[in-house]
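MFS aflatoxin efflux pump (Diaporthe helianthi), 581 aa
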Amino acid sequence: MGDPAEGSSTQNEAPKTISQGPPVPEGAGGPGGPGGPPGPDTLYKPKTLRFWLTLLANFLAVFLVALDRTIVATAIPRITDAYHSQGDIGWYGSAYMLTTSASQLLFGRLFKFYNTKWTFLTSVLIFEAGSAICGAAPTSPVFIFGRAVAGFGSAGIFSGAMMIMIPMIPLPKRPMFQSMFGMVFGISSVLGPLVGGAFTSSSLTWRWCFYINLPIGAFTLIFMIFFWNPPAKKTEPAPLLVQMKRLDPLGTLFCIPAVVCLLLALQWGGVTYAWANWRIILLFVLCGVLALAFAVVQILMPNTASIPPRIIKQRSVLFSVWFTFFIAGSMLMLVYYIPIWFQTVERASALKSGIYTLPLVLSLVASSLINGVATAKIGYYVPSMLLCPSIMAVGEGLLSTLTRGAPQGHWVGYQFISGFGLGMGMQTGSLAVQTVLPMADVSMGIACIFFSQQLGGAIFTTVGQTILSNLLVSRLAGVSGIDPAQIVESGATEMADIVPAEDLNIVLDAYNYALTRIFLAAMGLAFGALLCALAMEWKSIKKAGAGAVADTAKADPDKSRMPEDTELAVVEKGRAITPSR
């Protein structure tokens, strides 16, 4: 596995590229040196008010987008009642995560080549617009559209929030702040159902689950516009055609429909259409073909790829991406379906179901803080990646044993175990990427991590709905007087109105069985994450090596350049200008 220090720092200077200008050495004229752009050691000012206000505004933006992923969990029954659209339940969460995941790679390129501040602020504006649409939506399709718009904006906020922190905080000090980032992300994700339940149960109604984003987002916008001034990037002007090529339009053209086809197949399979239906088969085939085309584009056009082969082939990056994919899927299965278990099986109100998930929040906070301190102390993040899925698997396995009328100590303890495991390592993937990649590639590496996080959440939220719908149909198919399709299509809060009193216990047992199978599936995902953690390299955040690019440059300076340096020609005034070597 090699020495932990080798090739393991994000503080590596960026090689000369068409977008960043010539490399600037550390020290005089380098990052943090006289005459050069300020580096993390220069910008790290934890004793100043501006430093903490910048982090506050940054974390508020993260809080909103993470909250928005799950706030609909407890509001879904009321939303489905309002729109009479139980069949759309999976899309209320997946539409948001679909556009987030599909556009995450695009924002990775945007943050690499363009102004971080205005890219981030534009993302916040788009997110706010989507929230306003959701709050005012008169129909289910309009609501889903608003969720998709908000999801697109959230993609830029996720990547941008991390890119704001990187130049402010040196790598050895970053684990604690990254744990704070993860803690905010985790708390807001788990608090989403509680906040959603509070609004749903109040006179404000579920629409304020989305209106609440507007004033908080406005604070972030105002503060960032007037008080946040990130280090300027050295850029060279380029024609519009070259700027468009940088954003991998061909790859994006294949990536987005591939994700849409996959989620449509999972959403419709076994519910709207049989799994053997030609529509479902066609969607899976199209997904495979489009995904293959996307991969071919990334390989044949590495200089403009959204996922450059040189990045994804790095061992720690590859397994961090898959680790994050499995953990995100496992987490969202809990966050979405634990409140539904309380509302259906235990007949709790939307507000109470959110309150009952607090054990998940409290344990997540505790373990996030412990993880941040421990990682900064020992310098290695792999132990956290091993503990996270191991503890989660235990908690989720226990959750799968829940029955109707289970003692309070059971569902409190099982959630506490699951949340403690989750907090130990849900953000370690991005820390690994910052450690092993040169600075020029960090934005795209982080985009890959968040892409897998959002895609995993979108896919497995939909998978959870598929499990729920299919098992309800199969368990209730032979019961006289009950129409399984009607149960699936009805809102959860309307169940008691359409099910005869003498059959209600049968339906509740079917719900309990289906939901606990979802928790069992979440445990399987945790085991998948554990296998990925076992394959990680042991790299130290304390030993800042020169990095792969810098090491290569010592032996052969020409080989240290990124593909953008040697392959991307600028066509201007009828002649080709290739960046000088």
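Residues 258-300 form one domain. The chain has two domains: 40-248+301-575, 258-300. ok done for today
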